[in-house]
Amino acid sequence: MTVRAAVAGASGYAGGEVLRLLLQHPGVEIGALTAGSNAGQRLGALQPHLLPLADRVLAATTAEVLAGHDVVFLALPHGQSAAVAEQLGDGVLVVDMGADFRLADAADWERFYGSPHAGTWPYGLPELPGARAGLAGARRVAVPGCYPTAVSLALAPAYAARLAEPEAVVVAASGTSGAGKAAKPHLLGSEVMGSMSPYGVGGLHRHTPEMIQNLSAAAGERVTVSFTPTLAPMPRGILATSSAKARPGVDAERLREVYEKAYADEPFVHLLPEGQWPATGAVHGSNTAQLQVAYDEAAGRIVVISAIDNLTKGTAGGAVQSMNLALGLPETSGLPATGIAP
Amino acid sequence: MTVRAAVAGASGYAGGEVLRLLLQHPGVEIGALTAGSNAGQRLGALQPHLLPLADRVLAATTAEVLAGHDVVFLALPHGQSAAVAEQLGDGVLVVDMGADFRLADAADWERFYGSPHAGTWPYGLPELPGARAGLAGARRVAVPGCYPTAVSLALAPAYAARLAEPEAVVVAASGTSGAGKAAKPHLLGSEVMGSMSPYGVGGLHRHTPEMIQNLSAAAGERVTVSFTPTLAPMPRGILATSSAKARPGVDAERLREVYEKAYADEPFVHLLPEGQWPATGAVHGSNTAQLQVAYDEAAGRIVVISAIDNLTKGTAGGAVQSMNLALGLPETSGLPATGIAP
Amino acid sequence: MTVRAAVAGASGYAGGEVLRLLLQHPGVEIGALTAGSNAGQRLGALQPHLLPLADRVLAATTAEVLAGHDVVFLALPHGQSAAVAEQLGDGVLVVDMGADFRLADAADWERFYGSPHAGTWPYGLPELPGARAGLAGARRVAVPGCYPTAVSLALAPAYAARLAEPEAVVVAASGTSGAGKAAKPHLLGSEVMGSMSPYGVGGLHRHTPEMIQNLSAAAGERVTVSFTPTLAPMPRGILATSSAKARPGVDAERLREVYEKAYADEPFVHLLPEGQWPATGAVHGSNTAQLQVAYDEAAGRIVVISAIDNLTKGTAGGAVQSMNLALGLPETSGLPATGIAP
Amino acid sequence: MTVRAAVAGASGYAGGEVLRLLLQHPGVEIGALTAGSNAGQRLGALQPHLLPLADRVLAATTAEVLAGHDVVFLALPHGQSAAVAEQLGDGVLVVDMGADFRLADAADWERFYGSPHAGTWPYGLPELPGARAGLAGARRVAVPGCYPTAVSLALAPAYAARLAEPEAVVVAASGTSGAGKAAKPHLLGSEVMGSMSPYGVGGLHRHTPEMIQNLSAAAGERVTVSFTPTLAPMPRGILATSSAKARPGVDAERLREVYEKAYADEPFVHLLPEGQWPATGAVHGSNTAQLQVAYDEAAGRIVVISAIDNLTKGTAGGAVQSMNLALGLPETSGLPATGIAP
């Protein structure tokens, strides 16, 4: 069986990455490619690294063009996915790489996104407790945000095992592709090279409620998250430092044991051997999340470091992994566990 | 009056930066330049950016060569400063850019550095409460570590004003020059470009006790610090995200007020206007620390962002500022408040 | 005497750099700052590295605002300088960092810029034969393009000494700030980091006729230039590789001798010792051009490498140096010969 | 049939890259992995991106360990390949990624490498005229140098079609991985980020005679090459600007026609559509060489721009492509035509 896939938003970074992965997926044939303002252009002019698709011309994003595929990946600006999905019907698997269907709480959505809540779809982070089952046979998938992917994988096991107090502190550095391909002065190479800067400080980043949702579910109680994202001078990658106060009785051995058990069978989450630390450079282009844990006895805190490629495991890789599960394909098909280095 | 300055360790990054600043200092004449394994070489071959000193030849680091100056800057490996300082006598101001004399607690020193404690010198961070007075007329100065500079400036006002609980969480990103000029595989350009990675996770970094010392002094009680340093793909700069739980009654207005007051008269600490965030790219080559504060109501935490140039305010700028105070020169002499951007 | 300076286009990279230099110029007081679409904003929001000017508010660029200064620096889009200059009159020194008045040949101008030729002003590259004299007392100065600065300094001595055939081949790499601060997709950090790319290949770059003009003047005959500019993943700096076939009788010794003599007394052009090669990292933020020469006997070519900071010696430093000469100030005032490294 | 492959030098950049490609090769099984000073270590500690091989332990490089495979890839320091190859015998395909067997001329070898010439093996650049035939069934392959790959692909068609005079001028920028993984001060991240610098100027680089050999073969006459390599602040990629004086009668149309024809059937050499230029960022991790040609009428020169990934098409990709041809496997097996961007 070959799955026919369409990609809406094929000229952006998320769209380009899903195409890179689909090109190496043995069970997928690439169908329609659409774009907004770039409709009518050759893909080769916009995504010159996708050589096998260079001569494809981008169509305008309409339900007509996207219909008739087995799966449609949406890489659209926030707020546009619902209208497209409705027109596609249940015969098509829709994998949304945008934020629209990630949050269960409508009030959270409205506070952070400022628009009416569109609904909630099965959440495409199969490594979370219970999530894999919810994806089997799904017709709609909400792919997690890149930061929530890195942070939820980092802290969910600690919360599920009741190791940590429900007040998490997260500081994460992201490559610039997380901010998309729209040209803005602060994202110019001249501005970002050689500089680190924060944004959305003080609980303002839209990924905060998504982290809270995931960690609270794992903990079985409300978890607060102090989240500070920073922009790093690199195109790809997220390095997240997530910590929380340890509960009484926790020590380094118990901590490691919990994480080893949590991810022992996961193909894409890799707890590094003791003494080795994650680096975004080691997961460049791969669907792997690298993790390492530490127990800081003097400060009484659990510290978890996670590294992912924001465009692969953090977006398009998570999308393909979810598609595989929804369609009953092998979960790892088309998904590299090997990165490109240096 | 012209001050004659010698620099020991002139071929490294700290030594090079102190020379860059001294070259623009109106009251300083540059005397002896010494090095370890690079002794005998032209400075121009090792520090080609210091054109006016290109033809200077590096001497071996000995007390004889360093004697006879008004001030000697030491940029030596840990553990070597005491012996040199002893031989120089009290007639010479010795400004140590190494760690040897920063910590007051001998047990802390021994635990983190693994060697006998050499003593404690006046601490060269004049913006800390009481520190400026201790530097006036000093004959010995211990220049703070780069991370402790960024973090102490960030959190000392909150602790001094009793705004925060005594458990700080700090995640900081540093440019690679903080790791020095010795060639190590993990510091190769091929390894660091495009990658973020942590090190010294879990309370192991040697700057941790120095932060604890400074923040505890400001707080008047023992403060714990969970500190995670990360290596960023840039040559210079530290961006520190420092947070702590807010004490009851704290709000955004009160927080800002405390910081405005704390740094109103400081020439080198700049609280940005509301809505603007620090970036290391804005303090590249300058002695300025940029700060911004936020109160995250949902998480109940104070978050302070600070950006410095690790080699300027974080090392050599702090050293020159301390020299100015010790010798009664204008505090800002030779110290740029303007960075180089982009 | 204090010179009062205005800067038109203060929110861009060239404008920001001229302000950085003027802030350290002992004989200059900074007057009006103007901008186009950024008029009305605080400079601190746009150029956060220029801390001493942070609270200045940008005015709209009009002759009224710029009048009444001793010198006006223009950092305007091509084609806008003539109108401003006309209204300022001869009482004001106008230093144009744009291209409008660089070319003597109207046909060249029209072919490469597509608009009517505005005229020709004294050319602000004092190191070219005869140029310094033309700048003394000038009321108008055309600052050279960044690439022509690097390339003319590299090859003019060889042509003036009749060492080279009149067919030059130049390949140069520039940092991204050369492309300005306007947000364009191909200049995003995500696009430029980790990538090298050419542009304007095949003789199309607008700096080509300017190089031809300068080298032909030095040679006393028409020189052709094959010029290929490339965009490098760094914010600043130009590294130019300029070569030409050697005339009979040239050897390495003769070549070096000519360059040593040509630049022996120049404060800002530095021929490196044999065996040492220029690097843009060694001239970051300085007004120095580093040069090295080689004679490739097997290929029969003279190869000259030059490194400058495109924003300093290549734009704003050249502008301030020209101002100094025009106003009879010391040529090196306000101009750092020391770079920032690493 | 599954081919068993061993890699000698598996801890370096070339060795790591060949393993990355072999991991995705459907017809290859990875056998012994050896190293020099890193023997005894887990591969995961040295090449953390190669997750599927993380637990492999490196053996010492000996003929005993390497024997018994169908193919052995050598990524050894210059001068060590011959001894290993001799002991392996003709039953094993040996693909040498070092320089030892690239040059046909013993005098060239001795002048540039300073050691006795070991011999000449079939040259692993199948896109050169006649080369593919020489690789079919070969038992020994010399993989070209990275620069000669980029430059030979760029200029061979022009020389083969007699379009260009036999004096080529080449300036190329390489990412730092081309310099290997041995820690040297000038390759530190602090030194290379934000800086461009040349090396081996004036005909001294060891890849020069290899370019001359290839271009002379294509031209049917002796071609001289003026080659200037530069180090760019990026981990991977080569961008080469290669030019030569056009012969009478050449124009843009004829030039394009020649290149279109030369590479029409090549799976890994891609002449871009007119108006689009190569970028190393578009071939990151892929085995594709991107090319574009221009005819500069004013300068009378043909200019060819080529972009490759120095570790893929420039080293390990070329090695795998040669292995495929030597063993009669599909030429493109295991070789990505798609890059990773941004």
Tags for this entry?
alpha/beta; six-stranded parallel β-sheet; 11 helices; 342 residues; homotetramer; 13 strands; seven-stranded mixed β-sheet; 22% strand
Give a structural overview.
The structure is a homotetramer of 342-residue chains. Chain A is α/β, with parallel strands linked by helices and 342 residues long. Helix content of chain A is 29%, strand content 22%. In chain A, strands 8-9-7-10-13-12-11 form a 7-stranded mixed beta sheet. In chain A, strands 3-2-1-4-5-6 form a 6-stranded parallel beta sheet, sandwiched between helices. The longest helix of chain A is centred in the C-terminal third of the chain and has 16 residues, at 312-327. Chain A starts with a strand and ends in a 15-residue tail after the last helix. The interface between A and C is medium-sized, with 21 and 21 residues.
The radius of gyration computed from the alpha-carbon positions of chain A, rounded to a whole number of angstroms, is 19 Å
**Given the structure, what is the number of helices of chain A?**
11
Low-confidence stretches of chain A: none
Fraction of residues in helix of chain A: 25-40%
List the strand order in the largest sheet of chain A. Answer: 8-9-7-10-13-12-11
Q: What is the count of β-strands of chain A?
A: 13
Mean pLDDT of chain A: 97
Biggest interface, and residues per chain?
A-B, 55 and 55 residues
